[in-house]
Design a protein that fits this description.
With about 180 residues, this protein is α+β, with helices and mostly antiparallel strands. About 40% of the residues lie in helices and about 25% in strands.
Length: about 180
Amino acid sequence: MIKKYCDFCEQEQSVIEKQITESFNVKGEQITATITIQVCSECGNEVWNEELEKANEVIVFSAYRKKMGLLQPSEIKAIREKYNLSQASFSKLLGFGEKTITRYENGSIQDVAHDNLIRTMESTSAFKKIWSLRKELLSANDNKKINEVLENNSGVYIMQPRTNTKEYNISTGSYARKRGGIKYA
């Protein structure tokens, strides 16, 4: 049997776990969720348990995200991992603060604008557009990892330098315009 300190009895007492359904106000929204609490077996009052409080917060925030149509932390993580990026690099690419994705993956509730942008990154074509605009913010290693992921998903090597050059073709005796490493005749 588990024993915890009861503030009402002012001593250690056996506790009983109970599931209760309650309403919570999260960012102005009423959320109903079933959580677990511990009560003193002697007086019946609730006993503080930090682990349960954290677990209950996860349950309530998850219910809020579901009600509001927001991504869950595991979904955010899956989108980020799709491109083999660290939390800091994904945040940087999206234009967020360095720790923002870390906080969201650890349970903080994202705002709708951030949620929409993260959700957009599920689409490889949308990701490519953002990446092409902001890849200079990432390390060479991050860009290499992204490129490998995109190459494996599409079969096309997309990370080419943005340059326009001409290349002389000996067999045809002419110049061909070359853009970003891809030859156009």
